[in-house]
């Protein structure tokens, strides 16, 4: 007579427990490896301490700033910025950078895009752009504000750059981070409009947030 072996419920439960232990071991091993990698990346990041890029306004010139109709502005502005990577071990990719000019909180040119570029350790790049606006709507107080600036003898523009950057350490490249740059251009302005462009040659450091 052949012997029939029947496993008791207790024996089956014991086998199921072993499977559960195996899954738990795999889970903890995977979690340990992932945690170690994340801690390693964090330690490298803390040691390197990447500093945000620096921007300096080198020159700005207004070639046109006039109303063509009721609250419609025509503008033409040329600017040159100096971008610097202050890091010794971290490179930077600049993506989707766009620049525009603002006056008294009003955007007075359309967005102009800079080509994407790579910046090595402690490298510098000159960025030039022609900003224009044709028939842009502005507040009814625009003429009044310009008149006040003529009386004060100076006109102040905000030149703003928005976009995204990526950090590069060795072969590792980070995700995209938002960057916002604000530069002040102060230009002398007399009681009458000059025949040539209003210009500002300066080395003003711009405020940068990442």
TrEMBL record:
Its main location: membrane. Signal peptide: none annotated. It is found in: Membrane. One of its GO terms (cellular component) is plasmodesma. InterPro entries: LEA_2, NDR1-like. Residues 80-183 form the Late embryogenesis abundant protein LEA-2 subgroup domain. Keywords: Membrane, Transmembrane, Transmembrane helix. One of its GO terms (biological process) is defense response to other organism. It is a single-pass membrane protein. Pfam families: LEA_2. The chain crosses the membrane at residues 26-48. This is Late embryogenesis abundant protein LEA-2 subgroup domain-containing protein. The lineage of its organism: Eukaryota, Viridiplantae, Streptophyta, Embryophyta, Tracheophyta.
């Amino acid at each position: 007579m052949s012997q029939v072996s029947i496993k008791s419920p207790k024996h089956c439960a014991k086998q199921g427990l072993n499977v559960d232990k195996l899954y738990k071991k795999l889970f903890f091993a995977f979690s340990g490896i992932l945690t170690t990698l994340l801690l390693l990346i964090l330690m490298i990041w803390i040691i390197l301490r990447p500093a945000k890029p620096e921007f300096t306004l080198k020159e700005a010139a207004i070639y046109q700033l006039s109303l063509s109709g009721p609250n419609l502005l025509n503008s033409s502005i040329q600017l040159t910025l100096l971008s610097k990577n202050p890091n010794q071990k971290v490179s930077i990719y600049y993506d989707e950078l766009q620049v525009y000019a603002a006056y008294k909180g009003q955007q007075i040119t359309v967005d102009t895009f800079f080509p994407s570029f790579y910046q090595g350790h402690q490298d510098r790049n000159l960025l030039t752009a022609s900003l224009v606006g044709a028939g842009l709507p502005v507040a009814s107080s625009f003429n009044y504000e310009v008149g006040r600036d003529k009386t004060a003898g100076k006109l102040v523009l905000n030149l703003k750059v928005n976009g995204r950057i990526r950090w590069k350490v060795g072969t590792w490249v980070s995700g995209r981070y938002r960057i916002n740059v604000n530069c002040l251009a102060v230009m002398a302005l007399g009681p009458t409009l000059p025949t040539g462009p209003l210009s500002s040659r300066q080395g003003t450091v711009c405020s940068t947030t990442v």
